[in-house]
Amino acid sequence: MSRVSQAQALENRRRAVAAASQLFRERGVNGISVADLMKSIGLTTGGFYKQFPSKEALVAEAAQAAFGDLDLLLASFDTAHGDHETARGALVDFYLSAEHRDQPGTGCPTAGFAGDMARESTAGEVRETYAAGVEEFAAWMSTDANDGLPMVATLVGAILLARATAGTDLSEKILESTHTALTAPHGP
């Protein structure tokens, strides 16, 4: 049996975190086993325990990676749109789209990890990582009028409801009516 090089071990860890970040947002933390996760990237369960002390440690790292991806996405909106107000509007357009609704694995971690964070009474490090990510998202969404939390709460609530009702007319109505409410001149 050959030993894995340090470089390959780091690459395996990176792949496990990336896969977990996506799969946890798609299926929930309890919806994916360590064995299924490792199988998805072509590695054994034994390889998991060489990289992570526990599934909870992976969840924390996967959430942190997902919020890192969100930070990159938000920065790309700023870059693409020139000014922050326009970027914020474009983010609302994207967030409340069928594309975002239908791709939770690559979607916003604020929505993707929300159910798991709500169900875990002792989420510890994971909850701290999640809370920090939500605060950073809210700071990006903030305006002179508010700290961004009402906007984030509205966006996340809308996308969760739209996902929960996907395939029905109500799902589309949730996306459309929330978009109208948030983009109207008197919106939050």
UniProtKB/TrEMBL annotation:
Keyword DNA-binding among UniProt keywords: yes
Molecular-function GO term, any one: DNA binding
Keywords recorded for this protein, A-Z: DNA-binding, Transcription, Transcription regulation
Highest taxon in the source lineage: Bacteria
Residues annotated to bind DNA: 33-52
Keyword Metal-binding among record annotations: no
Domain HTH tetR-type: residue ranges: 10-70
Family matches, as InterPro entries: Homeodomain-like_sf, HTH_TetR, Tet_transcr_reg_TetR-rel_C_sf
PANTHER family linked: TRANSCRIPTIONAL REGULATORY PROTEIN
Protein name: TetR family transcriptional regulator
